Every structure is written in structure tokens, then in C-alpha cells.
Amino acid sequence: MSQTLSHQTVLLVKATVPALEAHGLDIVREMYDRMFRNPDIRDLFNQSHHGDAGSQPRALATAILAYAANIENLAALAPAVERIAQKHVGLQILPEHYPHVAEALLGAIKSVLGDAATDEILAAWGEAYWFLAHILMARESRIYRELAAADGGWAGWRTFTVDAVQRESAIITSFVLRPTDGKPVLRHKAGQYLTFWLEIPGQAPIKRNYSISHAANGETYRISVKREDKGLASTWLHEQAVPGTVLKVAPPAGEFVLADHPERPVVLLSGGVGLTPMVAMLETLVHRHPQQPVQFVHGTLDGTTHAMGLQVRSLAATAQAAKVTIFYEAPRAQDAVGRDFDVAGRIDAAWLTAHTPLQDADYFLCGPRPFLRTLVAALSLSGVPADRIHYEFFGPADELLAA
Q1: Band of the pLDDT at 53, cuts 50, 70, 90?
Q2: Is residue 98 annotated as a catalytic residue, yes or no?
Q3: Mean pLDDT over residues 22-30, rounded?
Q4: Are 143 and 12 within one domain?
Q5: Which of 292, 253, 256, 247 is nearest to 274 (CA)?
Q6: Active-site annotation holds for 140
Q7: Would residue 396 be called left, alpha or beta, if left means φ above 0 and alpha means ψ between -120 and 50 degrees?
Q8: What is the mean pLDDT of residues 341-348?
Q9: Over pLDDT 90: what percentage of the chain?
């Protein structure tokens, strides 16, 4: 494969930027429609991110536009490439899947743009696609090899048995998973997630990502799942995944992780079920770096939706420099300040400015899109550099970047 794109391809791809701005979403929707005619390709994807309300088409349209606009400065896209590679590994995307995407993408460009999509334009986008595809395939191949070779690691899908079920709140339940072969499991990095291949009776196979909600122990994983309204996977897990249930699981993935040796204070910001990777991060910091300054700041509706509160406070109490602050948006009469929560209302920029070390800390955020949009913007406007703002949510992250 050529190490660089041809000059002609660069010029032609850049020339399509206005067309992508105008028609990018239509192109992506047409591309997915073509790909999903093949059930084997359709089943590779998390379908909850697609459809009329899905965020994946918008995110991919933004990513394609960013690729075209930065075609001469691909180093700017390195973080996005790593994020995509990690998502692909979680979904078990393999080299043989890439030609299907190429065919669908080029066909969609031709279908939507019509005569404007000349043979030269299609050839340029074909070269640009395969240039990026080979970068992704090389990175994904390295990740797959590392996961398979690591202690407790594996390739593909591995079966786990639900070992225990713990109700954490009115809407969140935890599931402890133990490998059915009885062997060790890969010690994940705090913040990573597992991808599940769920076979629900009467439904096509579906894939879902769930953060690992405790520190690595080499024996089990724990996920903590919010029951979503009309959520096919979460409803099935809450109602059917009892101890003894067998699930198919891909190795831990994700680039939203703590540094092995944190050099700055850490602030963990979460909303709702977004606390799950934060609990794993807090537990890891408390056990491995007990002198590391860390603040766990979490917001939820009230005491009925507050999960793992006692565990979080108990963890923080064992460390020398850990602090917990809990926000209840609408506390009930029986929710006591100082016992159940600390502040009434929502986490906002003014509170973060007054109570967290903006100039020094690394910020990790996880939660619903409105939560992230508000606080990522607030931290940025407060002067926190982008390389100290880390975030995760289970939808396409590029949508947040575009916002």
C-alpha cells in the first residue's frame, strides 16, 4: 500500500467538501441501507445507534467530512482513528468486512450525488477509503494480537456465566460475570468496556457495550446496566439474566482509560449510569495510588436512582486524598444532605470552578449526551486544555465533538 495519497486524490477529495457538507448525511444513510441488506454485515453493528433517531449516521457523516477536510493533515485525526479502532475491536470487525463498506460507500456517493460523482471523484474516494482502511486494519490487528497474547486474554467471543446479580438502584442492576472455562480473565484498564453478543429469542442477534464497573481482579468482570425505556438488551438482562445465564463476550476494549501512573489530580465526573467506569477508576486509584488526589463527582435524580453510593464512599474513605460529592437534581424528603447526597441541583461550571483544580487536573467524564455537551463545553471555556478532558459515552463520540 502507498504510504501517501496521490496529489490528485488529495485535490479531488478536498473538492468534495462542499458536497459532503450539503449531502453527507444522505450519503451515509444510503451507505448503511446498502450494507444492511446483508444480514451478516448488519449484525456486526449496534442497531440502537441507527434508524431515524440513531446517532451513528450523523456521527459518520461528521467523520467523513473531517477526513476530507483534513486529508492533508491526517495526524489531526489520530485520536479519532484510535477510538474507531477500539470500537471495531469491540464489535469484532475484521479485514474481510472492509470491502463491503467500500462498495456501499462508493455506491452511496454515486447514488446521492449523481452526475457530480464522476469516475475521477469515485476513484479518488476509493483510494482515500482504502488508505484509511489499511491504517485501521493495521491498528486493529495489533490490538487483536495483544488481547489474545495477554494473560487471561482471548480472541473473538468467549462465553461467560452470570455469577451474581446485584440490584444497585431502582433502575440499575449489576451482573458479575465469570468465564465458563474457569480460566483467568484479562486484567482490563479502568474505564474500558465489554461488548456482548446477545441472542434474544425472537430477535436478530444484537451487540451492546457495557462499561466494566470494578477494578481488575483477573477472575471476573462486573457490568452495571441501566434499564432503558424500550431498551431491548437492558430489559432482557434485567428480566432474564439470572445466575447461570451464559453470555458471549468480546475482550475489553476502549481508549477511555486512566494513565498507568497519573501525574496530575484526577476529577471523575459522571451523570446517571455514567458512573460505572468511574467506580472502576476510583477503585483502581484507591488501591494502586492511595495518595493520588481524586474527586468523585456524580449527579443523579434522587435516592431511588443513586447506584453504588455506599461502595463509592467506602472506597474514598480508605484513601488519603479522595473526596466524594454527590448531586441530587430533585432530592426527595427522605434524601438527607450529608448522608445520601451533598448538593441539590446539577453539576455546573460555577461549582467546578469553585471546587475542582481546573488548572491542574485531568477530567474524566461519562454520562448522557446533554450532561457531556454541557460540561465538556464548560471545562473548555474555563481554560482546561483538550488533552486533559477525557470522555466516554455509548454512542458515536464524534457527535459530541461536532456539537
Answers
A1: very low
A2: yes
A3: 93
A4: yes
A5: 256
A6: yes
A7: beta
A8: 97
A9: 81
